[in-house]
Amino acid sequence: MKRGVGVDRGVTLALFVGYLALLLATSDTLGFMRDEGFYFQASRVYGDWLERLWQSPAEALSRAVLDRYWSVNHEHPSFVKLLFALSNRLLSGWFADTSTSFRFPAMVLSSLAVAVTYDWGRRELGRSAGVVAALSFAFLPRVFFHAHLACFDLPVCALWLVTSYAYSRSLTAPGWGWALGAGVAYGLLLDTKHNSWLLPFVLGAHFVLTRRRRLPKAWLTMLVLGPALCFALWPWIWHDTFQRLREYVAFHTGHEFYNMEFLGQTYWKPPMPRAYAPVMTAATVPAITLLLAAVGGAWALRSDRRSDYVLWALCIAVSYAPWLSNETPIFGGTKHWLTAYPFLCLFAGLGFSRALAAVHDLMPRLAHPALVGACVVAPPIVMAWHAHPFGLSAYTPLVGGAPGAASLGLNRTFWGYTTQSLAPFVSSRAPRRAAVYVHDTALASFAMLQEDRRIRRDLRGSLSIAASDVALYHHEPHMSRVEHQIWIAYRSTAPDAVVTFDGVPVAWGYARRPQPPK
Fold first, then answer.
1. How far is C-alpha 273 from the geometric centre of its chain's CA atoms?
2. ∠ CA(154), CA(152), CA(148), 5° rounding?
3. Residue 359 and residue 371: Cα distance in Å, rounded?
4. How far is CA 360 from CA 86, 272, 298, 356, 363, in A?
5. pLDDT tens digits for range 95-118
6. Which of 32, 33, 175, 277 could pair covalently with 415 via S-S, beta carbons 3.0-4.6 A apart?
7. 3-state secondary structure string, 183-202?
8. In this predicted model, what pLDDT tens digit does every residue of 185-213 receive, in sequence order?
9. Are 366 and 122 in contact (CB under 8 A)?
10. 487: how many CB neighbours lie within 10 A of its CB?
11. pTM score, whole prediction
12. Handedness of CA 94, 97, 103, 107 (dihedral sign)
């Protein structure tokens, strides 16, 4: 093995293992999102089916049994939830917390995305630029937050990246190996999340813009292997396939609307303001990463090595494209264009290589890749570490950080995950066997906090303010009515505990006071 190849493999492995270890080390401080609660439940049911499949295959594969188990959370494909189920069943003894056994597969896929970003970057840009691209992606504050979760957003980002990388390699590699890899990766992408529907637009546009004369081999494998693998791994669609696929498409194209605050106004029905995606990107992605990506993008326009640069640019453009439509439902924030971020960071790696060359021309003694690279990746690392575990409250200095974003009227928090930060208050103020109004936290997520012993196990999660002894409130402007209801029920307008991030209140708790005897 050549020394350079060994070094590159070592760096790739170190990035993968190092990031995975960091995610595992910081998982216990991060509470559970609403969606995680639903996926915990679904994965337990799928795990029961897997056990039944092992014990009695014929019975488990009957339609009645399949429909009973796989109807749970059937609006989402199965691959990542199957990984959650297998991890929980096979690896739960490895981890101190049950939740980590569910979260582990998503952490692995997130770490894979970091490693692939490096490998692609070093092939196109050089080793130091590849490291910068990988670390810039790994420590985007919102990416670092989502990388911990038993959700689909980082897994679909990782599989989009892996599919694109395999496709790129297949265009120049002899044989069918990379083309087959692209087909398999696309099947897993299809069976992860509906972002996968957009990737063919990227590949079609790439074919046209790079003026290729032959249809890529990977098109055939992706067309054949992709849907076949998705079908094989998703038992819910084994029966009434076309009807259930229509339901799947209809669910996501007509997704229920969520409220989202933007510049002081709460939006519920589409369209979202055209400025939403670019402003939120500028407000949450470190400025050094954006600046280097702009430099890299400008350089790419002048470059003769266009194929991968065009592919990167198209992946970014298509990931953002739904936010230009008047029909895109409002059902989340920055997580819905996470698929763009590895490619944004690859352009940042290209910008870094050009900046390093400029520093070398001006100040040769300072143009050491490690020194300049450290200056580039230090801000994202510091921001991500500072924001944890309040990743959805993280904003960059461009908008004044979290305080400036709150003043501008940008979402302070989302998904009800800050309940864990209120755990000390709940444990100290709730009477024995008390009911806790969990507000925006899913009951299954609250139950996982108890299973992991992060909140007392004698307590009961509740969705009733009137029947509760302790009430939690996760601030979003459209939820102010909930706090008003707590004031009335608890006869107090003063919270007993407030969780803040950089001085900005994001969640607070109320304890019911004993009423004087009549």
1. 22
2. 55
3. 11
4. 51, 44, 20, 6, 5
5. 999 999 999 999 999 999 999 999
6. 33
7. HHHHHHHHCCCHHHHHHHHH
8. 999 999 999 999 999 999 999 999 998 78
9. no
10. 16
11. 0.95
12. negative
